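ok so for the tutorial part 2 we go from a plain amino acid sequence to predicted structure tokens. step 1 is just haveing the sequence, like this:
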Amino acid sequence: MRRAKISIIGAGNVGATCAHWAASKELGDIVLVDIVEGMPQGKSLDLAEAGPVEGFDGRLVGTQDYRDTAGSDIVVITSGMARKPGMTREDLLEANKNIVTAVVRSSVEHSPDAVLVLVTNPLDTMTYLAKKVSGFPKNRVVGQAGVLDAARFRAFVSMELGVSVEDVQALVMGGHGDTMVPLPRYCTVSGIPLTELMPESRIQALIARTRDGGAEIVKLLKSGSAYYAPASSTIQMVEAILKDKKRILPCSAYLEGEYGIHGIYFGVPVLLGGQGVEKVVELQLTGEEQELVRASAEAVKKSVQGLNL
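step 2 — the prediction. this is what the tokens look like for a chain of 309 residues:
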């Protein structure tokens, strides 16, 4: 049986940590690509040398040459500038537009049948750009956002209640930014609605912290941005695709009328399997939730317009 091939473009903190999680789960052979000479080679070799200790097999390659990525099943794109204190995700638009355009062109030239998983910010806009540049069908281009945002919400609920994070489920929709829409109505702890366990004032405080989750880490680090949780969230998506797990996960998917939204990538629950985004799951939202989703969609549309395509 042929091993899956995963190419990760960008060997910085997020990309290298994606490689780490993917290798430890033995999801396939991994190619780590970066323009910095020696960095992907060194990190892939270091990770390979952890294999005997951790007990994982797989071929790990570091390279500057996209020919080494040929025939990839999945291409994860993390390349781009990271946020610094005081920056929003939108501040990265122009610089990362040029980077993502070049990366996508090189990737699809050598892997025309791959699924593209975007991690670069501003996430929904860069995923839209990747679809336009690649010419791929909408199901084979997906953005990682909602898994991370929901994971942050779950972590904060766990901390607040002093319960196992394994028992907390949550859903976050919307654009990956300040207008994201955590949905407490769909947050449960071992099946118990969050509203039964926490006053509304604390729920709203955790929603605000979730929206600012990335900025909170950027501020603490002072240089660079989050990478452990973004990488693990990305690899959960990669695993769902490679193993055709049919997971229902919140991802940035291309909408053509779902939730009344047309022509943008936007965070919604999807069925994620071997074909990529196999279905968008439509929920019945309350009037207040619909208004929050509408406002978030308008923010994403404004960002996409900034691409000037």
